[in-house]
Amino acid sequence: MKTLIIHPDDRSTDFLRDIYRGLKDVTVLTEDVSRKELHRQIEQHDQVVMLGHGSPSGLFNVARVGDGAFTISRNEVPLLREKRCVFIWCHADQFVREHRLEGLSSGMFISEVSEARWFKVPADQEAVDTSNEYFARTLGEALGASEDYRQVLEHVSRGYRQLAETNTVAAYNAKRWYLWD
After folding, report:
1. 175: domain CATH number?
2. How many distinct structural domains can be found in the chain?
3. Cα–Cα distance, 98 to 141 (Å, whole number)
4. What's the pLDDT score for residue 107?
5. 39-81 pLDDT, tens per residue?
6. Distance of alpha carbon 139 from alpha carbon 21, whole angstroms
7. How far is CA 120 from CA 35, 40, 56, 140, 169, in A?
8. Alpha-carbon separation of residue 79 from 10, 73, 120, 146 (angstroms)
9. How large a percentage of the chain has pLDDT more than 70?
């Protein structure tokens, strides 16, 4: 399976690289890609994994991947309907639900101490880093081991729930991890 990774270059999301570090047959887009080339790449791949910061409107464009404020927005929805998709950004679940897409997605996902404070989740940098690193590593392992998104969801959820016993950020995030089909 050919996998396209769309991960706009942003130091605050570097931990997400562990998701695709061990995957085979991947193309990674991080910066300076036109909208036309982005669409061409989506069309040429079987699975699309989209990572970074975002909102219910889509994946933010922080590194000139596409044009405008969003790298992934309603403009890409027709292309994504035909693909296996993983949407990892804050409130990606709302984007997926609104556009009736399928795949794995995160809801509001705490990846920074400031977000933990905003959502009143007691956490220091160590707790955030531990949660981030565990999630990315575990999701990468699961995607590498299975093409069945139900198995991927269960593997990540099971492990994340165990971490959640001692990590408040993981406890928050574990409740915001979805499969839409």
Report:
1. 3.40.50.1460
2. 1
3. 29
4. 97
5. 999 999 999 999 999 999 999 999 999 989 999 999 999 999 9
6. 11
7. 37, 42, 21, 28, 10
8. 25, 11, 37, 23
9. 100
Distance in angstroms (rounded) separating the CA atoms of residues 123 and 36: 41
List 53's β-bridge partners, or say none.
none
What is the 3-state composition of the chain as percent helix, strand, coil, each rounded to the nearest 5?
45, 20, 35
Annotate 76-133 with DSSP letters as a single string: GHHHHTTSEEEEESTTHHHHHHHTT--EEEESS---SHHHHHHTT----HHHHHHHHH
Interhelix angle for 125-145 vs 149-164, to 10°? 150
Task: Report how far residue 179's alpha carbon sits from residue 5's, in angstroms, rounded to the nearest whole number.
Answer: 19
Residue reference for tokens 């990315």: 136
Determine the structural domain holding residue 7 and report its residue range: 3-180
Selection from 158, 59, 156, 56 nearest residue 108 by Cα: 56
Residue 117's contacts (CB-CB under 8 Å, 6 or more residues apart) are: none
| 91-110 mean pLDDT | 98
The residue-averaged pLDDT of 25-40 equals 97
Confidence at residue 67, expressed as pLDDT on a 0 to 100 scale: 87
Tokens 């047959």 sit at which residue?
25
